[in-house]
Structure formats: structure tokens, C-alpha cells
Design goal:
The chain is α+β, with helices and mostly antiparallel strands. It contains one helix and nine strands; from the N terminus they run αβββββββββ.
Length: 160
């Protein structure tokens, strides 16, 4: 089939049509890239929040297990307590401590969590059979997660 003189000038796209199509495609790709970037940042922040919550829970659970398995518990200050075994030997020391990286929660001199410890308080209750622990951690983005628990010390002694 041959092109008639009438159709010869109309076969294909003009340069202006190509530039307009390219510009519109560029806008669509840029918008998709922006959506992907926002979603990626949201996922990262959510993931960091979950990690922070997990670390708070793990730290409190670890201290709780240590307290429940101890024969004796001694509260040194509002930010430090120690657990002792049945022979009276020191088992663990938990404290909030200033390091070069900021305030940290430590177990036996080692960081219990990688995040900054904004707040840590251990309070022996008046009945001397339980200890209330409050812990607040902060990640690098400034997000805070806190947890408080009351741990009962059964048939054990607690000194102040």
C-alpha cells in the first residue's frame, strides 16, 4: 500500500509531540520516585520504632528474670540495683550509667541496649516484696518508648 500525497506529511510524530510526551513521562517517573522515597522512609521509621519497643521489652524482661531468680535483692539507688544468689554472691548489677555515647542502661558493666536510656528508675515498694522498674529508651531519631513493670520478689529479702 502506498501513501497518498495527502497522508505523507502525517506519518509519525512531530518533534513537539515527542518533547511533550517525554516531559509528561518524566513527571510521572518523578512522582513515582517520590512515592517510593516516602514509603521507604516510613518503613524505616516504623522498623526503628519496632526495634526500640523490642529492646525496651527485652531489657525489662531480662531484669525481671534476674530478680525472680535471685535470692536477695539490694536497691543501691533510684538508678541501680543488684541481685544475689543463694550463697550471697553478687549475680548481676543493673544501673543507668553515663558513657561517652550518652546515658546507657548497663548489666554488669555492659550496655543492655544500644539506645540511649532517657530514664531508669527502680523503686522498692513499701511492702518490700516487690520492685517497680520504669525504663524509657530513645533512638537516634528522638523517638521515645517507655515501659513500667512491678516485679514480685517471693520468699526473698530485699535490702535498701
Amino acid at each position: 500500500m502506498e501513501l497518498t500525497p495527502r497522508c505523507r506529511g502525517r506519518a509519525g510524530f512531530t518533534m513537539i509531540e515527542m518533547v511533550v510526551a517525554l516531559f509528561i513521562s518524566l513527571i510521572v517517573v518523578a512522582a513515582l520516585g517520590k512515592v517510593m522515597l516516602v514509603n521507604s522512609r516510613s518503613w524505616k521509621l516504623g522498623n526503628e520504632k519496632v526495634l526500640l519497643q523490642t529492646n525496651v521489652s527485652d531489657a525489662v524482661d531480662r531484669m525481671s528474670r534476674s530478680i525472680r531468680s535471685a535470692r536477695r535483692l539490694k536497691v543501691i539507688s533510684a538508678t541501680e540495683f543488684r541481685t544475689y544468689d543463694t550463697a550471697g554472691a553478687l549475680k548481676h548489677t543493673y544501673r543507668r550509667y553515663q558513657t561517652a555515647g550518652g546515658l546507657r542502661l548497663q548489666e554488669d558493666g555492659l550496655d543492655l541496649t544500644p539506645q540511649a536510656c532517657n530514664s531508669f528508675a527502680c523503686t522498692a515498694n513499701a511492702d518490700t516484696t516487690s520492685l517497680t522498674i520504669s525504663l524509657q529508651l530513645q533512638n537516634a531519631d528522638g523517638e521515645l518508648v517507655a515501659r513500667q513493670t512491678r516485679i514480685t520478689v517471693r520468699n526473698r529479702t530485699m535490702s535498701f
